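[step 3/7] fold_predict: job queued, chain A
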Amino acid sequence: MVKAVWNDTIIAESDDTVVIEGNHYFPDFSIRPDVLKPSATTTVCGWKGTANYHSIVVDGKENRDAAWYYPEPKAAAAEIKGRIAFWKGVQVS
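[step 4/7] structure written:
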């Protein structure tokens, strides 16, 4: 079971992650919905497409843009549709 932890709280866990470029992409249903706050931030990856972001909020602390996903990934990254990855101090193990 792979877990994502931030601020001493498990925010996601799944035995079905997809690893791309060293990042675990969790199925969106495996993430606690109460910790995600939508963000207006987007970035573009040449082979995956446009990423959208969420901030993570746990116990009143916010980790801005610490989760990202590709709502409409390009064909080469189709396996990450409906999945979310983490960074910015989120421990994935």
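[step 5/7] annotate
Residues 24 and 56 are 16 Å apart (CA to CA).
The first strand starts at residue 2 and ends at 6.
exit 0
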